[in-house]
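Example (one chain per record):
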Amino acid sequence: MRVVFAVVFVGLLAGCGVDGEPWTPTMSGTIGVGSGGVHTSGQIGVSNGPVTISVGGGCGYRNCW
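Predicted structure:
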């Protein structure tokens, strides 16, 4: 029971930013129109100060990645 309480307590402290600023979620999206048709892309991630971790992808007229 003590271990469960300790894990929950540390999780609450980390969630409220006691150990530093919390990670901030980021999101962006783009829609473009060109001679090849409509292209879309998106990106999601998190940032904390100078550190940013993100994942993105896009779709064109003929392919998605």
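Caption: The chain has a mean pLDDT of 78.
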